């Protein structure tokens, strides 16, 4: 059924494209009609923001994918086709990011309807990360998560605009130069923030594998449930593998993404909790789209700062303590049974996720007694003498804080 829907969408899109191309056959590519601005279409937020930084008000810009829109699964609308028809220049990411749009965009370029540029495919191959070469998807498309690599994209945008609109070449060069300096400052900021985390804390766990370039550039190990494309399905084995990693590496936080439903990350969190541990949701990261245009993450610079600040704040926090349950206490007691009064002071029962806190029972009053958490070894022999009665002591050392 899913394949049928995808097929019908593509057929409808192909029909629209065929009508559009036939209507435009023989029309020359013009850098804006006389007296009008250059008309530019950008597919993604990061590309659109770079065009805006380089071109300013010299172009009429339309960005197709707004906040929260996943480019991996986006299908063009009739409105998009009309925007393509009117455009002088079309910028898209390429490298199979806009999987449902690429055939349309390539045909537009081949027919000479507009100047069509796949930004990622202009970058040197040696600077790109691999993907699935055997399926024709040779490189990871998430190139904007490395600020230094994104400078290459900005230069491509600048050079394309200069060719399409030489009358504004000086302005494009000046704006691009200023923006490239801002990207250098951004790159330095991210590196400084990342350096505040010890290497063992730089484990970034997300819903899909969008942060490979970020990890390579800024020293993070990147793990994800889904693959490079969010169109891939996450299996139970994928969730279990990531759960095991979180437990083994004591990862304090995992992250959701603004363009992907949080259910898979929540599944990992639930599995970690079922294993007797806690992992926090570190916050939302912007993986494939910018934030609201009028907000702090509505620009590329703001989005990247938000991501690194969110990551550092979450991974720099102390890992959550293991939760304590009656079962945990029984297992740790060894030959010493859990006394009834102990169970009364375990507020979290099996299946709940809060961290239990045990307070010194009133049966064993002690001066200066304080709350304590679970112990990693058996109860001390002093707490129980074998006759099923409590042995008075200064405190019940179920765990040392």
Written overview of the protein:
The protein is of the alpha/beta class and 401 residues long. The chain folds into three domains: 2-190, 3-Layer(aba) Sandwich (Rossmann fold), CATH 3.40.50.1980; 198-315, Rossmann fold; 322-401, no CATH class. It contains twelve helices and ten strands. The protein has helices at 2-24, 45-55, 78-86, 102-110, 147-164, 169-194, 212-218, 236-249, 263-274, 300-315, 326-333, 340-344; strands at residues 38-42, 59-63, 89-92, 115-118, 130-132, 137-139, 203-208, 221-226, 253-257, 280-285. The strands form four sheets. A four-stranded parallel sheet has the order 2-1-3-4, sandwiched between helices. Strands 5-6 form a two-stranded antiparallel ribbon. Helix 2 (45-55) links the parallel strand 1 and strand 2. The protein is globular, with a radius of gyration of 28 Å. Residues 1-12, 21-35 and 320-401 have low confidence and may be disordered.
Mean pLDDT: 79
Helix segment tally: 12
CATH level 4 superfamily of the largest domain: Nitrogenase molybdenum iron protein domain
* SSE run: HEHEHEHEEEHHEHEHEHEHHH
Largest pleated sheet: 4 strands, parallel
Query: DSSP strand (E) fraction?
Result: 5-15%
* C-alpha end-to-end distance: 56 Å
User: Are there runs of 5+ residues with pLDDT below 50, and where?
Assistant: 1-12, 21-35, 320-401
- Using the 3D structure, state the CATH architecture of the largest domain: 3-Layer(aba) Sandwich
- Would you tell me which CATH topology of the largest domain applies? Rossmann fold
Outline type? globular
**Radius of gyration over alpha carbons?**
28 Å
Question: How do the strands of the widest beta sheet line up side by side?
Answer: 2-1-3-4
The first-level CATH class of the largest domain is given as Alpha Beta
The total beta strand count reads 10
Give the total of domains.
Answer: 3
Question: What structural class results from the helix and strand content?
Answer: alpha/beta
Helix content percent band: 25-40%
């Amino acid at each position: 059924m899913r394949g049928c829907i995808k097929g019908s969408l593509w057929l409808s899109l192909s029909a629209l494209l065929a009508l559009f191309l036939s209507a435009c056959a023989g029309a020359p590519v013009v850098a804006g009609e006389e007296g009008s601005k250059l008309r530019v279409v950008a597919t993604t937020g990061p590309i659109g923001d770079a065009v805006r930084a380089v071109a300013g008000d010299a172009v009429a810009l339309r960005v197709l994918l707004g906040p929260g829109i996943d480019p991996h699964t986006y299908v063009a609308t009739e409105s998009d086709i009309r925007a393509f028809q009117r455009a002088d220049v079309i910028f898209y990411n390429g490298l199979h990011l806009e999987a449902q749009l690429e055939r349309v965009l390539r045909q537009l370029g081949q027919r000479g309807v507009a100047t069509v540029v796949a930004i990622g495919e202009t970058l040197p191959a040696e600077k790109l990360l691999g993907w699935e070469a055997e399926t024709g998807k040779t490189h990871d498309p998430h190139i904007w998560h490395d600020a230094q690599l994104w400078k290459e994209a900005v230069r491509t945008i600048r050079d394309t605009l200069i060719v399409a609109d030489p009358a504004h070449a000086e302005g494009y060069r000046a704006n691009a130069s200023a923006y490239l300096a801002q990207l250098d400052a951004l790159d330095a900021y991210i590196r400084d923030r990342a350096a505040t985390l010890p290497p063992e804390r730089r484990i970034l766990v997300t819903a899909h594998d969008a942060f490979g370039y970020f990890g390579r550039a800024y020293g993070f190990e990147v793990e994800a449930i889904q693959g490079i494309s969010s169109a891939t399905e996450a299996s139970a084995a994928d969730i279990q593998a990531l759960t095991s990693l979180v437990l083994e590496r004591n990862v304090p936080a995992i992250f959701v993404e603004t363009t992907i439903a949080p259910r898979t990350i929540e599944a990992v969190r639930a599995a970690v909790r079922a294993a007797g541990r806690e992992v926090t949701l570190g916050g939302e990261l912007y993986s494939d789209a910018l934030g609201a245009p009028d907000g702090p993450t509505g620009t590329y610079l703001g989005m990247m700062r938000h991501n690194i600040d969110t990551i550092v704040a979450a991974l720099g926090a102390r890992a959550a303590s293991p939760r304590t349950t009656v079962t945990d206490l029984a297992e740790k007691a060894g030959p010493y049974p859990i006394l009834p009064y102990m169970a009364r002071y375990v507020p979290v029962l099996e299946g709940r996720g809060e961290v239990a806190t045990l307070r010194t029972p009133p049966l064993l009053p002690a001066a200066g007694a304080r709350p304590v958490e679970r112990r990693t070894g058996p109860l001390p022999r002093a707490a129980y003498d074998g006759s099923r009665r409590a042995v008075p002591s200064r405190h019940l050392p179920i765990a040392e804080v």
